[in-house]
């Protein structure tokens, strides 16, 4: 069961260049994305209403898409506007569409009640629209439920054991770091962690030379249902970064957006940004490779965890004090699901009426 009345990342904007028809499953629903000749992005069910063929295997014609099974042509509103060899088009020949927006180089889709879709509530990641921040967009597919991935990112202590040679974790990190009180938000949480007078992380040592001991900070903000935002960096030890002195500091910005594909698979859209001006392209490539290496360290743990838990649905997950962030995220999701379920009866009645009208139309077609 998924939260639906929220915005999800459906892809990177560059995935729709050159007339691409992108088929992607989101929340168990197969969806077609494309950009018409008027540059507007369309999201519609990736299933022709005639015989159920995939529209993503079709052909883009201006702002419309043609099913290449029997030639039906659909406009951006999902309405069939041409049936080869037939003048009259049954009114039921329509394909459902979804609210969709492009912001900060990302494609955002609303999977719930269209009347509630407000583009001003898109989570966004404004650094992607600021030219001084650069990075290489990435994508990974996980065979795991998205909440296990949220748990992973909400628990920074795992860095000490999973990522010692990439992100620079060590048992010392768990023992020596300090952190601000976790700030519970209506849609997530925020916390800042400090590791003072420590070594530079391995992934930064690849392109920063001659920096000795450093003070490291990580400000994490997570947003329900599955967004991870990180503002982080390193400053020469004792330089006063905790008081706001950024002189000599190296800063990064990270987004990881987890969009459920099914109950046991997830799309991960990620980017790691930097603002270095020298050797910019080399640093971008180095960062991307290092972060990908770190994500691949997480993947086998999370995917096997998924398999283990799936075999024993009755297994009860235990909590420690350090799990406060991930527990808050799960609580928020549970509350939103309850809210949507409470609103569901009326929507179900409305949908039933629509389905009845459609069935009557199909019978008369």
TrEMBL record:
Pfam families: Rieske, VanA_C. Keywords: 2Fe-2S, Iron, Iron-sulfur, Metal-binding, Methyltransferase, Monooxygenase, Oxidoreductase, Transferase. InterPro entries: Cholesterol_7-desaturase, Rieske_2Fe-2S, Rieske_2Fe-2S_sf, VanA_C_cat. GO terms for molecular function: 2 iron, 2 sulfur cluster binding; metal ion binding; methyltransferase activity; monooxygenase activity. One of its GO terms (biological process) is methylation. It comes from the Bacteria. Residues 339-365 are annotated as: Disordered. Residues 7-109 form the Rieske domain. Residues 339-358 have a biased composition (Basic and acidic residues). This is Vanillate O-demethylase monooxygenase subunit.
């Amino acid at each position: 069961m998924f939260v639906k009345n929220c915005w999800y990342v459906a892809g990177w904007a560059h995935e729709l260049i050159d007339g691409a028809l992108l088929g992607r499953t989101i929340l168990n629903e197969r969806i077609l994305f494309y950009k018409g000749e008027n540059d507007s992005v369309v999201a519609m069910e990736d299933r022709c209403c005639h015989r159920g063929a995939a529209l993503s295997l079709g052909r883009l014609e201006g702002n419309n898409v043609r099913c290449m099974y029997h030639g039906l042509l659909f406009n951006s509103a999902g309405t069939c506007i041409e049936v080869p060899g037939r003048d009259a088009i049954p009114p039921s020949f329509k394909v459902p569409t979804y609210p969709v927006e492009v912001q900060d180089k990302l494609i955002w889709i609303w999977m719930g009640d269209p009347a509630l879709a407000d583009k001003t509530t898109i989570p966004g990641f404004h650094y992607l629209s600021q030219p001084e921040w650069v990075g290489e967009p990435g994508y990974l597919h996980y065979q795991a439920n998205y909440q296990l991935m949220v748990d992973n990112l909400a628990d920074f202590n795992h860095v000490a054991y999973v990522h010692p040679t990439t992100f620079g974790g060590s048992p010392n990190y768990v023992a020596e770091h300090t952190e601000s009180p976790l700030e519970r938000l209506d849609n997530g949480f925020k916390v800042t962690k400090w590791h003072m007078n420590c070594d530079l992380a391995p992934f930064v040592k690849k392109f920063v030379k001659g920096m000795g001991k450093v003070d490291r900070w990580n400000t994490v903000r997570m947003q329900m249902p599955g967004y991870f935002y990180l503002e982080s960096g390193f400053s020469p030890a004792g330089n006063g970064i905790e008081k706001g002195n950024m002189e000599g500091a190296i800063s990064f910005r990270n987004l990881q957006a987890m969009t459920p594909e099914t109950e046991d698979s997830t799309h991960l859209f990620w980017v790691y940004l930097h603002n270095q001006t020298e050797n910019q392209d080399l640093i971008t490539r180095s960062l991307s490779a290092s972060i990908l290496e770190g994500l691949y360290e997480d993947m086998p743990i999370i995917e096997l965890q998924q398999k283990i838990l799936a075999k024993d649905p009755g297994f009860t997950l235990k909590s420690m004090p350090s799990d406060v962030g991930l527990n808050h995220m799960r609580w928020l999701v549970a509350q939103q699901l309850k809210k949507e379920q409470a609103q569901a009866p009326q929507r179900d009645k409305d949908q039933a009426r629509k389905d009845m009208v459609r069935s009557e139309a199909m019978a008369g077609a």
